[in-house]
């Protein structure tokens, strides 16, 4: 039995077996990309059972564990922007910061297919920003350059 590929664009319905983008699917793809990149780099990665933890992955460094919350970043105005809090509105709690509950954000940016690892204390409690382009006024003070957080050039310790 062969596989048929339709190369024609058009129509608003996705092909059979392809799920439309929804927040859960986007998050799952980002988590999968982050997990794959960590494994490719030789890290031992643990996954919690269920969805009730504030972290998505744990990296075992043999001497300690690093709790990681996975996020999807989007490029906007020369920076990768990502949320650093979660909505607990359905529980009557509004937005909740991850401070004190995780060690790192791992951010997958689908637009450049890169993974960035950011200590939770390096970014604000609502949104994080990593510059991929210089600012219009060339300001560098207070800017977090994405290259400094790129998993390809980091060693987690």
Condensed summary:
The chain is mostly beta strands and 157 residues long. Helices cover 11% and strands 29% of the residues. It has 1 helix and 10 strands; from the N terminus they run αββββββββββ.
Backbone structural class: mainly beta
Give the second-level CATH assignment, the architecture.
Answer: 3-Layer(aba) Sandwich
Give the strand tally.
Answer: 10
Structural domains: how many: 1
Low-confidence stretches: 6-11
What can you tell me about this protein's structure?
The chain is mainly β. The protein has a single domain (about 25-155), classed as Trna Endonuclease, Chain: A, domain 1 (3-Layer(aba) Sandwich), CATH 3.40.1350. It contains one helix and ten strands. The strands form three sheets. A five-stranded mixed β-sheet has the order 1-2-3-8-9, with helices on one face. Strands 4-5-10 form a three-stranded antiparallel β-sheet, with no helix packed on it. The protein starts with about 20 loop residues before the first helix and ends in a 26-residue tail after the last strand. Mean pLDDT is about 90; it is low at about 5-10.
């Amino acid at each position: 039995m062969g596989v048929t590929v339709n190369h024609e664009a058009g129509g608003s319905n996705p092909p059979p077996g392809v799920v439309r983008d929804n927040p859960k699917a986007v998050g799952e793809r980002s988590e999968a990309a982050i997990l794959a990149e960590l494994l490719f780099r030789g890290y031992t990665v643990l996954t919690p059972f269920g969805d009730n933890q504030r972290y998505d992955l744990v990296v075992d460094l043999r001497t300690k564990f690093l709790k990681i919350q996975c996020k999807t970043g989007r490029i906007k105005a020369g920076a990768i922007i990502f949320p650093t809090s979660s909505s607990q509105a359905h529980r009557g709690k509004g937005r909740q910061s991850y401070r004190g509950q995780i060690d790192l954000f791992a951010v997958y940016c689908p637009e450049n297919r890169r993974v960035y690892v950011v200590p939770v204390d390096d970014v604000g409690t609502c949104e994080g920003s990593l510059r991929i382009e210089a600012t219009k006024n060339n300001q560098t003070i207070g800017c977090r350059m994405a290259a400094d957080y790129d998993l390809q050039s980091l060693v987690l310790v």
